[in-house]
Write a structure and sequence with these properties.
heterodimer; A: 318 residues; mainly alpha; MetI-like fold; 2 domains; 15 helices; 0% strand; B: 412 residues; alpha/beta; D-Maltodextrin-Binding Protein, domain 2; 18 helices
């Protein structure tokens, strides 16, 4: 910007003018710098107010003793890392961690595999393919509360659709050994469109000539997928899986609407546990304990976020 | 040059404007000044009755009646989980002027000082039944006024019981026998339906069995308590009640009953009108105690309470509105619509005389126990732990004894 201004100021003419011209140029530079700050200010303010402040405040809350009484008095003493010790010592902690890992990994694997299969399927043009592709996006368009409530009904033990279709008698949501799987099932369905859209876009970017050349060389469908689609799709795969991971690990609404983390915490993940600790449990509720879990969740998501940024940067430079 | 100056001005102006609008938006939310003619007062009211958001419910017309009578304008906000919402709002200092909350939560909030007692607000509950007002008492002061009461009883499907040749049970043994005889897996009909959710709703439903077995809230892991929970667990284990009960709330339990999937159910007064609309042939009896007789039921119902905001004039206005709200004549349409029992003795008797459906309930409410009389402000915590314990036992996660011991240890 400053070079543009210098050029616009034109060549110097005469020594006496030099001094004032230099001063004018300095003023112009300063003004253009100000303008530059002005332009980035909205972004900086936005990030500070809506991202930085909540994160810092959550971290700060996790170091205080903010209990039910504190909501009303506003007083919460500093207790250091006691909340973290309490969370790690909580009998539910290991189960919540295990649930979160199972929920995230199983959801991701199935979302990706099914999403990829559908993307490959839809990359061939056939009558009504656009219509069907549009229909598959429906999970994305529906509010999660609506679809999750429907899933709840479908998973009911006594007259739910699932038991009727499968001929089983499983209490998908009421049996502690099944409830997490009931929620995972719904979440896989919810995540397929996201994977489909990204992977479909990735497939479109692979030049068709590669497939033609491979076909001429006698490569079958599997070899074309294995040696052309898969390697060329890898960057998109990385982005899809990493973003999916970040979305899934923090998934709240789908779990909360279907089971509220229950029965007896059997489908509790870090996100729902954080909410439960913060706002449920009568006078025992503690915003600090909730914030502690939220902070742990944030740290996990941050690590994967950084991996994502690094992989994205590598893609640009390399 | 001129153009550049304009760009600079624009670049600086945009964020400033954004900030300015952000601030002014915040101010509006804080003060919420009424923009009608001078003298008109606006009060904000929060309640949890999402089902009464139709524009024509008795609840909304009760508000309208008192708006007309007192000249106060009510801005109503509905939230399904009003207790949570209210707590969260208190954290940000954005509370309403009036709140309607479930009676067992009153002491918990009164303890924090967020509610205004009746001596300050001028609410008059002197003519109401003492056991009903008792739910709103904390350390000698009364907070707000009850808007009507309910309690639990045993509903039964007359057609199904007649077909099986069974009379309504009067003891636990009879209850189990009846449930067994009425269960029919072929039509997915269960003998008995109850809500065993891991929260206060579950423990509310459990209390008639808990008290009916001789247990007390001061010791939730007593042998009597374990026996009561074992009754529920065995009903589910033997297939006379659904395991799904751990996820169903009382409305969903009612739906099971009206759909013919449950021959008997534990439910409250407020379901009467819906059941009549569904056209189901039902009867109501008290929930039996263990060895026969009537089990004490928990007193349900809500209180309308002014919220502390430091503005004396506003609190007084809120008190005026509440006095209008719980006035006998104004209440009656709402009570009939909700099938709640009046907090006034004479009006309750009148309800029993004019609507025979309500007669057993009027007696039940008069004998019902306040949930907070033993424990005060710690009741919600105990109730939540008790709910988690019974949900864990009913779902098969743990046995009744260890579930209750864990809950008792957690509330110590």
């Amino acid at each position: 910007m400053s070079s543009a201004i210098t050029r616009a100021a034109g060549p110097a003419a005469g020594t006496r003018d030099d001094e004032s011209r230099r001063a004018a140029r300095r003023r112009a530079t300063r003004r253009s710098q100000l303008a530059a700050f002005g332009f980035i200010a909205p972004v900086v303010v936005y990030i500070a107010v809506f991202f930085l402040y909540p994160i810092i405040r959550t971290g700060q809350l996790s170091l205080l003793d903010y209990d039910f009484q504190s909501y009303f008095s506003g007083e919460a003493p500093f207790i250091g890392l006691d909340n973290y010790a309490a969370i790690f010592a909580n009998p539910v902690f290991t189960m919540v961690i295990r649930n979160t890992i199972v929920f995230t990994l199983v959801s991701l694997v199935f979302q990706y595999v099914i999403g990829l299969a559908l993307a490959v399927f839809f990359s061939r043009r056939f009558p009504l393919s656009a219509v069907f592709r549009g229909l598959i996006l429906i999970p994305w368009l529906l509010p999660v509360v609506v679809s999750a409530t429907t899933w709840r009904w479908m998973l009911y033990k006594d007259y739910g659709l699932f038991n009727t279709l499968l001929g089983t008698d499983v209490a998908w949501l009421a049996d502690p050994s099944w409830s997490l799987w009931g929620v995972i099932l719904a979440n896989i369905w919810l995540g397929i469109p996201f994977n489909l859209v990204l992977l479909y876009g990735g497939l479109q970017a692979i030049p068709g000539t590669l497939y033609e050349a491979a076909a001429l060389d006698g490569a079958g469908a599997w070899h074309r997928f294995r040696h052309i689609t898969w390697p060329l799709l890898r960057p998109v795969t990385a982005v899809t899986v990493l973003l999916g991971l970040i979305y899934t690990i923090k998934a709240f609404d789908i779990v909360w609407v279907i089971t509220e983390g229950g029965p007896v915490d059997s489908s509790q993940t870090l996100a729902t546990w954080s909410y439960k600790l913060s706002f449920e449990g009568g006078t025992e509720q503690s915003l600090s304990l909730g914030a502690t879990v939220a902070t742990l969740l944030f740290l996990v998501a941050l690590v994967f976020g950084l991996i994502y940024i690094r992989s994205a940067r590598k893609e640009v430079t390399g | 040059m001129k153009q550049r100056r304009w760009t600079l001005a624009a670049a600086l102006a945009v964020p400033t404007l954004l900030l300015a609008t952000a601030c002014s938006a915040g101010d509006d939310g804080e003060t919420a000044t009424p923009d009608g003619e001078a003298g008109a007062t606006t009060l904000t009211l929060w309640d949890g009755w999402t089902q009464y958001n139709t524009g024509s419910s008795p609840y909304e017309s009760l508000i309208a009646t008192c708006e007309a009578e007192t000249g106060i304008t009510i801005e109503r906000t509905v939230s399904e989980s009003i207790g949570d919402t209210f707590t969260q709002a208190a954290g940000t200092g954005d509370t309403p002027d009036l709140v309607i909350m479930d009676n067992p939560n009153v002491t918990q909030f009164a303890e924090t000082g967020i509610l205004v007692d009746n001596a300050t607000s001028g609410i008059d509950t002197s003519e109401m039944m003492a056991n009903i007002v008792a739910s709103g008492e904390y350390e000698g002061a009364t907070y707000g006024a009850p808007v009507g009461s309910n309690t639990l009883a045993l509903y039964y499907n007359k057609d199904l019981l007649d077909a099986a040749g069974i009379t309504p049970p009067t003891s636990w043994a009879e209850l189990v026998d009846a449930a067994a005889a009425l269960t029919d897996p072929a039509t997915s009909t269960y003998g008995l339906a109850f809500s065993a959710r891991p929260d206060q709703e579950g423990s509310f439903q459990f209390l008639p069995f808990f008290w009916g077995g001789g247990a007390e809230l001061t010791d939730i892991a007593s042998p009597e308590a374990i026996e009561a929970l074992t009754l529920w667990v065995d009903l589910v284990k033997d297939g006379y009640a659904s395991q799904e009960n751990v996820t169903l709330n009382q409305q969903e339990i009612r739906d099971q009953f009206t759909a013919g999937h449950a021959a008997m159910m534990v439910n409250g007064t407020w379901q009467l009108n819906t059941l009549d609309e569904a056209g189901i042939n039902y009867g109501v009896v008290p929930i039996p105690a263990k060895d026969g007789g009537e089990a004490p039921s928990p007193l349900g119902g809500e209180f309308i309470i002014p919220v502390q905001n430091g503005d004396e004039a506003k609190i007084e206005t809120a008190g005026t509105f509440v006095n209008c709200f719980v006035n006998r004549d104004n209440l009656s349409e709402w009570l009939n619509g909700q099938t709640y029992i009046s907090p006034y003795r004479d009006q309750a008797d009148e309800q029993a005389a004019t609507d025979e459906r309500l007669a057993p309930w009027v007696a039940a409410v008069a004998a019902a126990r306040s949930r907070t009389e033993d424990l005060g402000s710690t009741f919600p915590t105990v109730a939540t732990k008790l709910g988690e314990a019974l949900s864990g036992a009913v779902s098969g996660q743990s046995d009744p004894s260890s579930a209750l011991s864990a809950a008792a240890a957690a509330v110590q």
